Every structure is written in structure tokens, then in C-alpha cells.
Amino acid sequence: MRIKEVMTESPQSCRVGDSANEAARIMWExxxxxxxxxxxxxxxxxxxxxxxxxxxxxxQGLPLSQIAVASIMCPDVSTCSRDADLADAERLMQERQIHxxxxxxxxxxxxxxxxxxxxxxxxxxxxALVQKNGEAQELLQTVARISEPRTRPHQARV
Length: 158
Description:
The protein is an alpha/beta fold. It contains 6 helices and 7 strands, in the order E-E-H-E-E-H-H-E-H-E-E-H-H. Strand 6 (about 100-105) and strand 7 (about 110-115) form a beta hairpin.
């Protein structure tokens, strides 16, 4: 199965110069917990989670409109291609212990988001849940791996 078959297309994003307020607005309106941050060329520059926003507001004691999204985003973002195999994305999620991966085109521009929920729905749709191995086993390994405690507690989790 290919990533493009299960990913969320045309995700809402913020620009590097936006405030955390803009990211929070997107999360509220789109019912999501993560927003990719793009640069002036539309390439993924970072990612910000609802937790990142909450912790920034708490520790900085400022309104979200005064917190630059660039100051709280995680710039170390793993991405995947829409034509990549879903199993490759699952391995990436396992290795990085992440729940979501921005999907980019050949030029690195944002075209979608792949979440663990997308993967689960894809596995269910493929009928793999009734099998004893294969895609369903890979999904279980992915969930188990990203759920493990991290050795560095303040590392950004996406």
C-alpha cells in the first residue's frame, strides 16, 4: 500500500513568521493536534504540536499571539513521499517515535500528512487485521514502539 492511498491531503499549515495563535486556531478548526510549518517556498521547515503550544504559553507566560511559532516548532522533521510504501513510513514512525509524518512532493513541498490513525484505517481497509502477520503485525509494532518512554523526556514528540 502506498502512502498516498491513506494520507490526509492538503493539510492546513502555518508559515515560519506566524504566531502560535495561528497554529492553535488551525488545530481548533481542523480538529488536529499538529500543524506543519512551511517556509516561503512551501517546504516543510518544522512542525508544532498542541503540547508545544501549551508548554510555550505556560513557561513564557505570554499570549499565543506574542509567541512566534518558529521559536517553538521542532525543526528536525522527518518526511516521506506520497509514492513511498506505507511500511517504510511505519518504520520511520517506529525509529523516530512519532505519530505523524508530513508528506512532501519531489521539491520538498507539503502535500499531505500521514498519521498513525491513517495507517490504522489503511490496515483495516486492506483486511490485514484478520491475518496473523503482515500489515497488522507491523501496525502493532509501530504502536508499541512509539508508545515506549523516551530516554530524553524533553525531546519533541510529533
